[in-house]
Amino acid sequence: MKRVFSDVIQFRGSHYDFGYRQGELLKDSPILPNRKKFWGSKSKLRHYLVNDMEVKRMILHFAPGIWDELTGLSDALKMNLTDTLIQFGGYYLEYGKSGCSIFTNGDYMIRNYDNDPLSYEGRYVLYQPSDQGYAMIGPSMQITGRTDGINEKGLSMGYNLINRVRSDDGFICNMIGRIILEMCANVEEAVSLLKEIPHRRSFSYVLLDPNGESVVVEASPREVVVHHANICTNHFEILTHENRYKFEDSRNRYEAMEKQKSTIIAPFSAYQMLNDSDKEVFSKKYGAWAGTLHTAAYFPKELKAWFALGGDRLPFIFDFHQWLHGEKLHVTRLKGELDTTIPFVNMEEATNGKR
After folding, report:
1. DSSP codes of every residue in 1-62
2. What is the pairing mode between strands 333-338 and 231-232?
3. Any residues with CB less than 8 A from the CB of 158 and at least 6 apart, and which?
4. Of 60 and 43, which is predicted with more confidence?
5. What is the pLDDT of residues 262-310, one digit of tens each?
6. Which of 66, 217, 326, 351 has the most CB atoms at less than 10 Å from its CB?
7. For residues 295 and 134, is the Cβ–Cβ distance under 8 A?
């Protein structure tokens, strides 16, 4: 078993100041040197960016505050524009394959985030901007992006990878997720954004707002469709021609939730369906980019969030509503265990390169 952790980061202020503060924190963190060591030479990140000014134009069009955040990161880290966009820009950048499972009803969204531990930053972020955009809470990816989360309007979001082939110029999943939380007040606005924004890869985006409306948006670089559903894994139900050649594992997790959903009587039992290792949804395939790293739950009407690292664990409960009204959280780190020897990228021992 590997003990892991996520740092809880709280910030209220402008996007630039938020970016600058994150840059200061990254100076003393293993995240950037570890990422460079494990990803830099392997993925040749520079080859995946389009023109810097085109990236800037796209970010300013969809979420201008995020550009200020990138500027703050750049200044704090003394990093040039190109390198800043490579590391944090969320446009036209490769990531590995991953799993993920989501279950919703009218009151909550439960989400398993499955991936390789070395891809996981271990940062759980609460941010309340003072200049523009909505406040949000959720785990970060690529520092500026989000794997899932909820914003101050109660809009909740999670995404699942479908396919990495037939890519095109566009934003990757974590930045699209961040822009949804930053700019959209409800499911309707999020669907409109997903139909407009360019997609790098094929993903399903699951959305839920306080009206109890839960939809799955199937998005590829070529087309976007919307349907109502309360279960989503790693295959499309409508755009089936975009699916991977093999998706048995995705189908198995989908069917496991379909089989058990009639027994769900409360949010905690839904959480257990995804987090308990004996319920056939939680995954231990960490060496294949498909092990469950965290289970998150979001409650749009209550503005609460649950979070746990690893399986068979009680969630930590965040009262986002109280935080929005000025109450500071006293938790600084969330701890967990994974059935693997692979560390998170935020851990010092990851520098030795051992898996």
Report:
1. -EEEEEEEEEEEE-HHHHHHHHHHHHHTSSHHHHHIIIIIHHHTGGGG---HHHHHHHHHHH
2. unpaired
3. 100, 102, 109, 111, 113, 147, 148, 177, 205, 206, 296
4. 60
5. 999 999 999 999 999 999 999 999 988 789 999 999 999 999 999 999 9
6. 66
7. no
pLDDT of residue 35: 82
The angle formed by the CA atoms of residues 88, 90 and 92, to the nearest 5 degrees, is: 125
What is the distance between the alpha carbons of residues 15 and 127, in angstroms, rounded to a whole number?
A: 9
Q: Give residue 42's pLDDT.
A: 47
pTM over 0.90: yes
Domain boundaries in the chain? Answer: 2-12+97-352
CA distance 240 to 110: 24
The answer regarding whether domain 2-12+97-352 maps to CATH 3.10.20.340 reads no
196 and 189 Cβ atoms separated by less than 8 Å: no
Give the ranges where 213-278 is alpha helix by DSSP (H): 248-260, 267-275
> Higher-confidence residue: 55 or 281?
281
pLDDT at 94: 55
Tokens of 119: 């891809």
Contacts 24+ apart (CB under 8 A), 247-252: 249/99, 249/283, 249/285, 249/290, 250/99, 252/280
State residue 97's pLDDT score.
64
- At position 174, the amino acid (one-letter code) is N
Percent of the chain having pLDDT more than 90?
81
Write out the two tokens for 108: 């909550």
For residue 331, give every residue at least 6 positions away whose Cβ sits within 8 Å of its Cβ, in sequence order, or none: 8, 316
Q: How far is CA 244 from the centre of its chain?
A: 21
